[in-house]
């Protein structure tokens, strides 16, 4: 089953091959940028800038290599409209990118 088929079947209460898995399909199922960088490290994936979509909760955008490693079924649709062009190093072992408006308001 594909992720889409699995989610639709579960919503329709039909049998699925495994439970659908959601990581950051919504803010409520998201992961904080610091925890996300640690997850990438745990999975043995290369260090890279973490794109931040929710500036209140600091929710990370999940990269394709993490989705593949964890067999994630759900896909976030809202990150595409976010402008993330600034990188910060907070704390030293983590890198993240922040929305430009956030930088203007808090980092002047």
Specify the helix fraction band: 25-40%
Instruction: Write the H/E string, N to C.
Output: HHEEHEEH
Kindly provide the radius of gyration, computed on alpha-carbon positions and rounded to a whole number of angstroms: 15 Å
Overall tally of domains: 1
Euclidean distance between termini CA atoms: 49 Å
The coarse silhouette is globular
Question: Percent of residues in beta strands?
Answer: 5-15%
* Mean pLDDT level: 77
Q: Strand order, biggest sheet? A: 2-1-4-3
- Note poorly predicted spans: 80-89, 104-108
Q: Structural class of the secondary elements? A: alpha+beta
Query: What is the count of helical runs?
Result: 4
Q: Count the E strands.
A: 4
Largest sheet data: 4 strands, mixed
Defining key terms:
4 strands, disordered C terminus, globular, alpha+beta, four-stranded mixed β-sheet, 108 residues
Outline the structure in words.
It is a single chain. The protein is α+β, with helices and mostly antiparallel strands and 108 residues long. The protein has one domain (22-106). The chain has 4 helices and 4 strands, in the order H-H-E-E-H-E-E-H. The protein has helices spanning 3-11, 33-42, 64-70, 100-106, and strands at residues 50-54, 59-60, 84-88, 96-99. The chain has a 4-stranded mixed β-sheet. The chain is globular, with a radius of gyration of 15 Å. Mean pLDDT is 77; it is low at 80-89 and 104-108.
């Amino acid at each position: 089953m594909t992720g889409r088929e699995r989610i639709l079947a579960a919503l329709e209460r039909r049998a699925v091959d495994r439970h659908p898995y959601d990581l950051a399909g919504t803010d409520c199922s998201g992961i904080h940028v610091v925890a996300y960088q640690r997850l990438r490290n745990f999975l043995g994936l290369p260090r890279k800038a973490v794109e931040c979509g929710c500036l209140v909760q600091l929710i990370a955008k999940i990269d394709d290599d993490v989705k593949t490693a964890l067999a994630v079924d759900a896909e976030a649709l809202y990150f595409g409209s976010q402008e993330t062009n600034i990188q910060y190093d907070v704390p030293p072992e983590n890198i993240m990118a922040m929305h430009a408006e956030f930088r203007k308001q808090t980092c002047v």
